[in-house]
């Protein structure tokens, strides 16, 4: 049995002594006040064992990590039709870029850039009877934690500064790829991003993706094996935007970042893991989060490669 606890303790200690530099996201003002010192890591194995270090129990804004769970939820009810409205190729551009959308006819490159997640939001508004309540219920089910909720102050803060995202929804609506009211799509999206979860809760949700889509310790098949494969493949190729190649090169696991400083990753068959450190690198991904996961696959000697 791998000594995950020893490895996480070592990673936490190394990063406490010296951390790659970065800047806490400020374009959503409510996120700017989070302490840059926070550092947590939690690993949940597919057999349900837990290992942790640092601020692993403290909830933070999951931001774009939500896009993985939104995609999973949308795939349950939509299947193939979704891929006519959003593609599955890496964009090579920043998460909030608008440039490809114009010359690619309003079809986003993938579901993890903002444009793609906004299309998935539009799809979920069709699928879910009570979109915000039902989506939250799904997040609670996949993570096995029932106290998870929205942080309204973060949703409101993003809403008031969502000029780029609003531009994207409008552009896609002009192309016929958004069915609902622009403000309704944005309202759902900013709420989905404003879910608060701890590393512990995220690691458990991502352990389901490591477990072929089955909830831990139960027979609940949350997501089919085939859809789980696809969600993981998209994380591998698109989860860190224009840093997805570097993340594969350094870490070697499918993963997803968020501007709240979280990074969650999956080692299929073995574990889900989440790291939280708010300062972001120039690509908008947690600098220490990536460093921690790189150390994890180095020290365990195991990645998907
Ligand atoms: O739409 C936004 O800009 C944010 N709600 C989420 C962006 C994000 O987390 C990008 N990830 N690194």
Characterise the protein shown here.
This protein is α+β, with helices and mostly antiparallel strands and 305 residues long. It has helices at 4-17, 66-78, 99-103, 114-127, 131-143, 152-160, 163-174, 182-193, 199-210, 225-238, 244-250, 287-300; strands at 40-45, 50-54, 60-61, 149-150, 195-197, 255-257, 262-267, 271-276. The chain is globular and about 55 Å long. 6-diazenyl-5-OXO-L-norleucine binds at residues 63-64, 95-96, 114, 158, 165, 193, 257-259, 284-285.
Task: State the low-pLDDT regions, or none.
Answer: none
What does the average pLDDT come to?
Answer: 97
Strand content: 5-15%
**Number of distinct beta strands:** 8
| Number of separate helices | 12
Give the SSE map:
Blueprint lengths: L3 H14 L22 E6 L4 E5 L5 E2 L4 H13 L20 H5 L10 H14 L3 H13 L5 E2 L1 H9 L2 H12 L7 H12 L1 E3 L1 H12 L14 H14 L5 H7 L4 E3 L4 E6 L3 E6 L10 H14 L5
Antiparallel strand pairs: 1-2, 1-8, 3-5, 4-5, 6-7, 7-8
Helix pairs in contact: 1-12, 2-4, 2-10, 4-7, 4-8, 6-8, 7-8
Bound molecules: 6-diazenyl-5-OXO-L-norleucine.
């Amino acid at each position: 049995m791998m000594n995950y606890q020893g490895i996480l303790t070592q990673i936490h200690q190394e990063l406490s002594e010296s951390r790659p530099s970065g800047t806490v996201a400020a374009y959503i003002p409510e996120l700017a006040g989070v302490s840059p010192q926070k550092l947590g890591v939690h690993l949940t194995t597919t057999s349900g064992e837990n290992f942790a270090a640092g601020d692993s129990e403290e909830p933070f804004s999951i931001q774009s990590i939500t896009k993985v769970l939104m995609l999973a939820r949308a795939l349950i009810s939509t299947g193939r039709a979704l891929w006519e409205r959003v593609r599955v190729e890496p964009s090579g551009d920043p998460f909030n870029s608008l440039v490809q959308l114009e010359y690619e006819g309003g079809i986003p490159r993938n579901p993890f850039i903002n444009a793609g997640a906004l299309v998935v939001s539009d799809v979920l508004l069709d699928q879910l009877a009570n979109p915000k309540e039902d989506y939250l219920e799904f997040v609670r089910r996949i993570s096995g934690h029932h106290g998870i909720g929205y942080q309204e102050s973060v949703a409101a803060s993003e809403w008031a500064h969502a000029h780029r995202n609003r531009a994207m929804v409008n552009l896609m609506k002009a192309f016929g790829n958004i069915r609902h009211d622009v403000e309704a799509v944005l309202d759902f999206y900013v709420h989905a991003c404003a879910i608060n979860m701890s590393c512990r809760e995220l690691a458990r949700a991502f352990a389901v993706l490591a477990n072929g889509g089955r909830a831990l310790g139960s027979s609940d098949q949350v997501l089919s094996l085939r859809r789980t494969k696809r969600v993981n493949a998209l994380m591998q190729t698109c989860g860190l935007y224009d840093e997805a190649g570097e993340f594969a090169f350094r870490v070697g696991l499918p993963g997803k970042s968020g501007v709240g400083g979280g990074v969650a990753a999956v080692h299929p068959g073995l574990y889900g893991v989440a790291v939280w450190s708010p300062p972001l690198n120039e690509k908008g991904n947690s600098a220490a989060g990536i460093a921690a996961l790189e150390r994890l696959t180095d020290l365990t000697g195991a990645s998907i490669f």
